Amino acid sequence: MEEKQTTKQRRKYDSAFKEEVLKMVMNGRPVAEVAQALGVGENLIYYWKKRYIKALDNKGMDNNEERAVLNKRIRDLEMERDILKKALGIFSRQN
């Protein structure tokens, strides 16, 4: 038996092309239709979509961390405000 050599090279797609494909899919066009129209494999589009969704989830984690920092800042500022209110009450009674 002879082994068949395949010298097929993988095609590379730039990020702008991938974004356009994902926009089409996210806007409701069927993956099969987009794949056939552009000559891209359906599985590849599903892979790009999965990676895109995962990237959005990771970005959401960054937002949660940022939210925690901002909530801590709010608590600190509220504490400072309360201290200043008490000080104002103390100084205003000394007439």
Question: Strand content of the residues, in percent?
Answer: under 5%
Task: Examine the coordinates and then state which fold CATH places here, giving the name of the CATH topology.
Answer: Arc Repressor Mutant, subunit A
Low-confidence stretches: none
Structural class, from helix and strand content? mainly alpha
CATH classification class? Mainly Alpha
Through-space gap between termini: 107 Å
Q: Figure out the total of helices.
A: 3
Based on Cα principal axes, name the global outline: rod-shaped
What would you say the CATH architecture is?
Orthogonal Bundle
Number of strands: 0
The SSE order reads: HHH
Describe the main β-sheet briefly.
none
Q: Would you tell me the overall average pLDDT? A: 88
Helix content: over 70%
Number of domain modules: 1
